[in-house]
Amino acid sequence: MKLLVTLVLCAALCLPAAMARAADNEEAQAIEAATKWLALCDAGRYAESWREASSFFRGAITEKALTDALTGIRKPLGAVKDRTRQSSVLARSLPGAPDGSYVVLTYDTAFANKANAVETATFMLDKDGSWRAAGYFIK
Questions:
Q1: Distance between CA atoms of 92 and 53, rounded to whole angstroms?
Q2: What are the beta bridge partners of residue 102?
Q3: CA within 20 to 30 Å of 56's CA: 63, 71, 95, 125, which one?
Q4: For the residues of the chain, what is the DSSP string, one character each?
Q5: Quick check: 134 and 56 in contact, CB under 8 A?
Q6: pLDDT score recorded for residue 21
Q7: 57 and 34 in contact (C-beta within 8 Å)?
């Protein structure tokens, strides 16, 4: 009986730590994926960024529509001079999206022609087990 109580206590104490490590790992993987995806956008490789986005994202916007939109939005801003991640939020549900694993990242970004911008990049754990872009917005 004493062993059972010890095992239950250990499980109760270890489970939150294990869950926190899993969340940290998800966040780190999403940040790594976001860094690579944003680099594609920074290089003007918009069609490739669409191909690397989540199936949800690709179902919501065509490659041409994304390429046209990002060309119209990003090109006038000029090159990225600095990008600093300000926050990352784990979510299991977002408005207008299926339930799943998401990380919403916000960055303070300085472009050559706009010194103060905020980028929001939402990444989701896609069907193939990879973290991929699910949304992108510049303010």
A1: 18
A2: 91, 124
A3: 71
A4: -HHHHHHHHHHHHHHHHHHHHHHHHHHHHHHHHHHHHHHHHHTT-HHHHHHTS-HHHHHHS-HHHHHHHHHHHHHHH-SEEEEEEEEEEEES--TTS-SS-EEEEEEEEEETTEEEEEEEEEEEE-TTS-EEEEEEEE-
A5: yes
A6: 55
A7: no
Instruction: Find, among 50, 63, 65, 68, the residue nearest to 132 by Cα.
Output: 50
Q: Which residue has the tokens 């006038």?
A: 76
Q: Which residue shows structure tokens 């944003």?
A: 38
| C-alpha closest to that of 35 among 100, 80, 96, 94 | 80
Q: What are phi and psi of 54, to 5 degrees?
A: -65, 160
CA nearest neighbour of 53 among 134, 137, 121: 134
> With contact defined as beta carbons under 8 Å apart, do 115 and 129 qualify?
no
CB 57 within 8 A of CB 133: yes
